[in-house]
Amino acid sequence: MKINLGSGYRNIDNHINIDIRESVKPDVVADLSVGFPFKSDSIEEVRAHDFLEHVPLGKTIGVIEEIFRVLKPGGFFDHSTPSTDGRGAFMDPTHLSFWNINSWLYFCNQSWNIYNIKARFGIIKLEDKVMDEALNIIHTQGLMYAIKESAVMKSWLEIDGWFLVDEGNALMYLAKGKDCLEIGSYKGRSTVALASVANSVFAVDTFKASGDGQVQMSDFTTLDEFLSNTKDFNNVEYGAGRSQDILPSIDRKFDLVFIDGMHSYEQVKLDIELCWDLVRDDGFFAFHDYAHPPANRAIVEIFDKKKLSSMYDLAWFKKSDGRMK
């Protein structure tokens, strides 16, 4: 379930649209400053665009805590709010509270939680965006996730690998409800993160890695652990072998390809080329170890680095932001 806070006249499909005004015909009429009419851990995503600035001072922390309460573990919080770094925060006489990018330190950085706030979010994206240059209107826009313990999060975090919590949650956001292709699975850490939210995952790996995952042995080294770690997910298929041997035989399309195999320039470029026609035109390419120089070189030859989105060493692009030469 997804909810859209302060929907106004902009009701969004596939969301429960909530507003305090009955006249705008929301799905639910509620004063959210006094509480949310939803059970704890029941919401997959909260959208709050042009909403928080209408929450009265003195009730802002309570509203953020309510957002956190209703979100499922790892649930997403998508917000856009006029920033005090522009005039938009102050020019509207209906605005009751005031925000900027530093306001989120209190909810995302434990060292700043000096008010015992009962909400903690991880950041996938947090940035300022100029909405109207002439009027000097700037919005702080964020995509975050609720940091709560869950069986799913523990399961993939307990698997051996190099994938960080924030990277995993960003990838899970991209993969939600999608058909995914993974190149480089190792023992299944990222595979399980994908499978926990995706419609399907096809994982490709030699399963012969040792050491740092970049050394290949003659016999299987990780296949048994991969199968054990993914056995509870009926949406996972796998191919044991090199990507150049397996991918040409695949005859279906994917919404997301996650490339985290061998990091040489030649192999990363080859993996992109092999996957290109397998990804739908509106799909995404994601890469781990994006900052690794040989891998980075191959990626930026094909994708416009100005269109990059990233979380630590995870980077992703829309397929439309790339061009095969």
What's the SSE blueprint?
Blueprint: E1 2-5, E2 16-19, E3 28-29, E4 43-49, H1 60-70, E5 71-82, H2 88-91, H3 105-108, E6 121-132, E7 137-146, H4 151-157, H5 165-175, E8 179-183, H6 189-195, E9 200-205, E10 209-210, E11 215-216, H7 223-230, E12 236-240, H8 243-246, E13 254-259, H9 265-276, E14 279-288, H10 293-302, E15 309-311, E16 314-318
Parallel strand pairs: 1-2, 1-4, 2-3, 4-5, 8-9, 8-13, 9-12, 13-14
Antiparallel strand pairs: 5-7, 6-7, 10-11, 14-16, 15-16
Helix pairs in contact: 4-6, 5-6, 9-10
Please supply descriptive tags for the structure shown above.
325 residues, alpha/beta, Rossmann fold, 7-stranded mixed beta sheet, 16 strands, elongated
Could you characterize the architecture of this molecule?
Helices cover 24% and strands 29% of the residues. By secondary structure, it is an alpha/beta fold. The protein has two domains: 145 residues, Rossmann fold; 171 residues, Rossmann fold (3-Layer(aba) Sandwich), CATH 3.40.50.150. Strands 3-2-1-4-5-7-6 form a seven-stranded mixed beta sheet. Helix 4 runs antiparallel to helix 6 and helix 5 runs parallel beside helix 6. The model has no long low-confidence stretch (mean pLDDT 92).
Largest sheet, strands/sense/barrel: 7 strands, mixed
Cα end-to-end separation: 42 Å
Question: So what's the oligomer here?
Answer: single chain
Rg (CA only): 22 Å
Strand order of the largest sheet: 3-2-1-4-5-7-6
Low-confidence stretches: none
Q: Give the strand tally.
A: 16
CATH topology of the largest domain: Rossmann fold
Structural class: alpha/beta
Average pLDDT works out at 92
User: Which outline best applies?
Assistant: elongated
Q: What helical percentage do the residues reach?
A: 10-25%
User: CATH superfamily assignment of the largest domain?
Assistant: Vaccinia Virus protein VP39
Number of helices: 10
Q: Give the ordered list of helices and strands.
A: EEEEHEHHEEHHEHEEEHEHEHEHEE
Overall structural domain count: 2
Architecture of the largest domain, according to CATH?
A: 3-Layer(aba) Sandwich
Strand content: 25-35%
Level-1 CATH class name of the largest domain: Alpha Beta
